[in-house]
Here is the input.
Amino acid sequence: MELNIAQLKFIKIDQLEESYCASLVDNKEFEIIKGYGATVAEAINDIHHSII
Here is the structure.
């Protein structure tokens, strides 16, 4: 399964030097929580892990 980032309305992805930062944002794009990882999927999983 391929991840289509364009379909994620409330997640902002930033590419850092050698990793990614995924931020859960509200409808005004205020960052609520961040996750980091070597890939986009790892960064999103880091957000998920922090929420649980």
Q: What stands out?
A: Residues 40-51 form the longest helix (12 residues).
